[in-house]
């Protein structure tokens, strides 16, 4: 190699090292900037939440208070009670003798009674009081539609649980002799069941997406998550199949989230920070990413229930107003009532198909 060629090679190598060093410094600076921005977002989010009593009291609203549990995020303690007053709002959670946030109910089921049970996570169990959960509101609305009908709606929701939880606990659900099972949840299944499996299968991605800068530059690999979403839906299908085997009607629902196009700047910042909690098993750093993920889940949900002829309700098409949410998935009291209203027509359609309802209607007609 000639001296001139050697000098040219040295200059090229030095240039490459300089470019690499500048790139690394820029990347570190960008990461540091985003980390400082995240800390600022955390402080702003705390102020934003404290300004709204329902945001600030989300643990109470969603029945997650530590005093309620026999086994955290699995089973409530029978007879447990928690009461908090904050911002002029009173939050009361009462767990019944069966370990659920619902009224006491008879076993065996009384003859002629139509019994609906609602299963799910915190979005099912949530409410300022037991009477303000969506299952309790749904019960009141069904009774108003059919005065005199013996009908009850049991809230079997347990904060933090997934589809898999209900699949393994169906024997207990069936022991309550439901005529209809209503199932609303998704985020727990994705965040606490599928994300850990996804992270284990893709450790390099898990590390890479821990970087705020990388996550900004490289979109979340939704296509790679498809098999895990399919697994969640297959679990849902197994729950429905088990219900059908016992002659129990099953209603599945898609999952609602705040419409990303309708967010105020303050709500967007709040949700961007809140999504960090749901991405603890596989990093999520923006609400936009979460919204795309839930959109993908709901699309696959719609395809699945149509393919397998499952009774369903597309909740996400009817609830998206950010004012109805306190975070990426949980509702304000107004949102909970809206959820009950959305479920009412579909659940009523199943209730009116039950043998107990038909017998009640016949007896009422004969009495006239």
Describe it.
The chain is α/β, with parallel strands linked by helices and 368 residues long. It has a single domain (53-367), classed as Rossmann fold (3-Layer(aba) Sandwich). Helix content is 55%, strand content 11%. It has 15 helices and nine strands. The chain has helices at residues 3-50, 53-56, 58-61, 122-125, 134-145, 163-168, 170-175, 187-201, 203-209, 212-217, 222-245, 265-278, 287-307, 333-351, 355-367; strands at 69-71, 75-76, 81-86, 89-94, 114-120, 151-155, 180-184, 249-253, 312-313. A five-stranded parallel beta sheet has the order 6-5-7-8-9, with helices on both faces. A hairpin with a 2-residue loop joins β3 (81-86) and β4 (89-94). α5 (134-145) packs across α14. The protein is elongated, with a radius of gyration of 25 Å. The mean pLDDT is 91.
- Please name the fourth-level CATH homologous superfamily: SGNH hydrolase
Whole-number average pLDDT? 91
Number of strands: 9
Taken as a percent bin, the fraction of beta residues is 5-15%
Largest sheet: 5 strands, parallel
Please tally the helical runs, counting DSSP H or I stretches of 4 or more residues. 15
Shape: elongated
Helix content: 55-70%
CATH names the topology as Rossmann fold
H/E topology pattern: HHHEEEEEHHEHHEHHHHEHHEHH
Cα Rg = 25 Å
Q: What is the total number of structural domains?
A: 1
What is the second-level CATH architecture? Answer: 3-Layer(aba) Sandwich
Across the major sheet, the strand order is 6-5-7-8-9
CATH class: Alpha Beta
Q: Low-confidence spans: pLDDT under 50, at least 5 residues? A: none
Distance between the termini: 110 Å
Q: Structural class of the helix and strand makeup?
A: alpha/beta
């Amino acid at each position: 190699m000639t001296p001139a060629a050697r000098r040219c090679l040295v200059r090229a190598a030095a240039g490459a090292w300089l470019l690499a060093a500048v790139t690394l410094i820029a990347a570190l600076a960008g990461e540091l900037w985003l980390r400082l921005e995240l800390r600022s977002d955390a402080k702003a989010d705390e102020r934003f939440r404290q300004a709204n009593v329902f945001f600030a009291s989300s643990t109470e609203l969603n029945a997650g208070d530590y005093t309620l549990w026999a086994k955290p995020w699995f089973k409530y303690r029978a007879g447990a009670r928690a009461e908090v007053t904050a911002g002029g709002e009173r939050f009361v959670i009462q767990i019944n003798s069966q370990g659920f946030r619902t009224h006491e109910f008879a076993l065996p089921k009384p003859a002629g009674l139509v019994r609906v049970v609602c299963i799910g996570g915190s979005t099912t169990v949530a409410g300022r009081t037991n009477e303000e959960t969506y299952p309790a509101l749904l019960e009141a609305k069904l009774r108003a539609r059919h005065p005199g009908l013996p009908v009850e709606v049991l809230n079997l929701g347990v904060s933090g649980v997934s589809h898999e939880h209900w699949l393994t606990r169906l024997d207990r659900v069936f022991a309550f002799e439901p005529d209809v099972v209503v199932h609303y949840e998704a985020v727990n299944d994705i965040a606490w069941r599928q994300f850990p499996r996804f992270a284990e299968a893709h450790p390099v991605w898990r590390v890479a997406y821990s970087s705020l800068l990388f996550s900004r530059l490289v979109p979340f690999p939704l296509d790679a998550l498809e098999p895990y979403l399919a697994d969640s839906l297959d679990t849902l299908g197994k729950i429905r199949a088990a219900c059908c085997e016992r002659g129990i009607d099953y209603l599945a629902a898609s999952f609602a989230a705040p419409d990303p196009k309708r967010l105020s700047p303050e709500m967007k910042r709040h949700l961007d920070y809140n999504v960090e909690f749901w991405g603890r098993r596989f990093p999520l750093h923006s609400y936009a990413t979460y919204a795309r993920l839930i959109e993908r889940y709901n699309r696959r949900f719609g395809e699945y229930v149509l393919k397998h002829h499952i009774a369903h309700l597309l909740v996400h098409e009817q609830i998206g107003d950010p004012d109805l949410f306190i975070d990426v998935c949980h509702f304000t009291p107004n949102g909970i009532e809206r959820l009950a209203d959305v479920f009412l027509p579909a659940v009523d359609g199943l209730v009116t198909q039950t043998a107990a309802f038909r017998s009640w209607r016949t007896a009422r007609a004969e009495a006239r």
